[in-house]
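Backbones bend. We report:
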Amino acid sequence: MCFRSYRMASSCLTRVKTYRSPWKRLYSTSQTTVDSREVKNFLALAHTWWDECGKFAPLHSMNDLRVPFIRDNLLKTSATHHPGKPLSGMKILDVGCGGGLLTEPLGRLGASVVGIDPVDEMIRIAQHHKSFDPVLDERVQYKVCSLEEIVNESTESFDAVVASEVLEHVSNLELFVQCCYQVLKPGGSLFITTINKTQLSYALGIVFAERIAGIVPKGTHMWEKFVSPEKLESILEPNGLSVETVAGMVYNPFSGFWHWSQNTSLNYAAHAVRSRAQEHQEPAESALKGEMEALHANASSSPSGHAAEI
């Protein structure tokens, strides 16, 4: 004799088995976020990384916005502040660190920073530049690797992950986000700066900035890889990362400075927070619990005290 209760329970358990939880997935070497074409582009420019008047000048000046953005949001989560070293005690992962333009100032704020980049020449340059400041020796480390390569050894290790001007260069955005979740501590912060996918970003970010004015090297960006704040949030939220802040950023090519804006149609910064263990229940587990409770209620409401027959 078949019972509806048995069929419901069996169906529910089947869904649990087939659900793929993104934050518990192991990452194989066949999965990668690295685009080999992007690696070649940045390798060709590696020698100009620390030239403040060169091709990476906009990244140098972007520190005026992104460093305080990261610092101030992290301080909101810290109960103790250290004068002169406000990020002391925090561990930060700088993904796609390049030559260390953002890694170094975060280290000077007191944080322990690990900078990773798949381009070995970039890491060599970053290591060399770090050697000029003894303060950074104990606070900053560099590794030649991609994000997915350190996931299994760095699970829930970092208070913050920084991906500044990186999303528009990765080959698998969702995998990248899942890896960010994996290495963050519960309650940890993900900081992103990237380019919106709009007609304006194509006209100014690629046609003008690359092909006409030469503000950034030609071929640096592919419009197809740009991502809107809405699309980014639609990837972050299901993967356990709650978006707290999105703010527009505008670069003035004549002054060479960035400023904040309410307009996110070009560049923008985002801050997302990983859910804490007690705040987040996996969808499959939640579905199982809900259906089993409904099953129990149906059984209890049956006149005989048993599930109804088919």
